[in-house]
What we know:
3 helices
Amino acid sequence: MDINALSQAVPVKMPVANKMPTTAEVTKEFGAFLTDAMNQVNQAQVESANLADKFAAGEITDLHQLTVAGQKASVMLQMTMQVRNKVIESYQEIMRMPI
């Protein structure tokens, strides 16, 4: 078996040197991630409120749909609050570290 024939059939990708992202790139990506997450939580809250309004007006009769949307929005908000609490706790712990 000819090894050169195999390397010609399947191109071998050489790993690119590990390029470390800059602080600005990481900050931008993290900010975009947080913004996207907050938008998703807000959208779930708005959707839950809209379904509750439609249910109260008699436009929809599926109570399960309303309950699932409400619980989904509630869980997302609780998760967001817990992440926020952990971030604040971590920041406070870092600030207590001696230099």
